[in-house]
Amino acid sequence: MRDGVRYTLLLSPSRPPAPVNHLFVSSNQNMLLSVFLALFLPCVGMSAIFLIYICILWFAANNQTEIAPQVKQPAEKGLSASELEKLPKITGRELVMGTECAVCLDEIEEEQPARLVPGCNHGFHLECADTWLSKNSVCPVCRAKLDSQFFISSNENPC
């Protein structure tokens, strides 16, 4: 009988499959969809930003000749030799604001010739001041601009 039961079990119709819980399958699909969207959407967004960046770079590179680049206006040139000669020459012992030359960072000795910048009264070695002021029309220490009024020779004493 054992064999008969065995055959009976094998020959008998199979049981219908267990009912599938649609709620469980639906939640699995929702979770997979959520994970997919959480991974996919940031990638799509970053790709779009990257493509926009590349397009802007391409546009800028192709239109570079059409837009005139902003050129920094050259600074005013320094003083001429005649203007330098009008600046006061003194010796190191006559300096009031200190004896260190801000151009070369060396001390100005008492017997060395120095140049005094009018207006701010900063003093420098004669060679250092002439070199600096021939390229720049400002004091190397305080950046005070040397006005043209310093170079106008007048007979009147402003004091």
TrEMBL record:
Keywords: Membrane, Metal-binding, Transmembrane, Transmembrane helix, Zinc, Zinc-finger. It holds the Pfam family zf-RING_2. The chain crosses the membrane at residues 31-60. Residues 101-143 form the RING-type domain. InterPro entries: RING-type_E3_ligase_ATL, Znf_RING, Znf_RING/FYVE/PHD. PANTHER family: E3 UBIQUITIN-PROTEIN LIGASE ATL23, RING-H2 FINGER PROTEIN ATL61-RELATED-RELATED. This is RING-type domain-containing protein. It comes from Hevea brasiliensis (Para rubber tree). The lineage of its organism: Eukaryota, Viridiplantae, Streptophyta, Embryophyta, Tracheophyta.
